[in-house]
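Bench notes, afternoon.
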Amino acid sequence: MVQVISGLRPYVRLSVASAAAAMLAAGSAQAATVTRSVFGTAADGQTVYLFTLKNHHGMTVKFSTRGGSIVEIDAPDRKGVEDNLVIGKADFAGWESGANAILGRYANRIGGGGFTLDGTFYKLSGPNPKTNVVIHGGTDNYFHKLWKGEAFQHGDEAGATLSLVSPDGESGFPGELTIKVNYSLDEHNRLKLEYWATTTKPTVINLSNHANFNIGGYDSGPVYNQVLQVFASHYTPTDAAQVPTGEIAPVAGTPFDFRKPTELLQRLYSNDPQMMIGKGLDHNFVLDKPPGAKGPVLAAKIYDPKSGRRMAVFTTEPGVQIYSSNGVGNALGQNNRPIRQSDGLSFETQHYPDAPNKPNFPTTTLRPGETFHSVTEYVFSVDGKGNLKG
């Protein structure tokens, strides 16, 4: 079910300048830093900002107010060589089209062109004309929105809050939705994304981020030799349009069994019908969450033997859609390097696709007076060492 809370976690809100002053006042204690700069000017004349987070262990995270796009995650390998660990765009114009960004109002797929809530059918905008499937929230999705950004400092972490108001009826969804998303980096090499939302009418919500990771480095080539572990005993098979059938199936005996660390190459080229539908990994894994778990639990791990880098994914969400960049086409990335299939891996922590049309899936309904709350953490290390420079 959608997690709801009664209030927001208190943060000290700061201007970017006062954030730096607060860290100096903290004395010798180390803390991550946050700065804001102009990323570019949108076609409509609005300023797009870039927030830069840094800690004292070699990590830098940059994200844009255009869709909350994660532009860079720089971290050293076992030899101390830093590289960007996300696959991105070549320039500002590319980032304006959306990438590595916040997904919503409903991340992933809704079949049948819409959903029924409290006896009313809501037809959504932007369905695929052939399949009638709506993906990532339809026409007015959050990928392309210009969010407001405000820096903050809390203990050893620094970050920024992105905020957005999604109007009642946008893309066909009921209710005015007020959203806040915190991006923060701490001294434990943890990049945390924390989401809150409230609504004026009963609605459905599924927020996530589509960051496309390659922990070997953005130009290191396909992720074939990286080792993946997913803490999920079940997944949700799909039909030919990649909409879940409603079945929650065991991964045992399928190429989706990553319960033990497994090299990706041997699975991505499986001829299993489900893998053929997605042209690789593009499936929702049902996480093995301990009973009564309230905070983020370990969802997945990815390891690059060549660089020694590791990333662990923790989340409060019940599922994670893992996507092996199967449909990137001929896009250009950093330094105008072409992005190819399997150059990256996305971990879209979320509720299940098409849950509004699947009564047996955890509910995504949000009602007035409730607060949607979700946390996802990406924790980076090198050959098991938490301190990337250590």
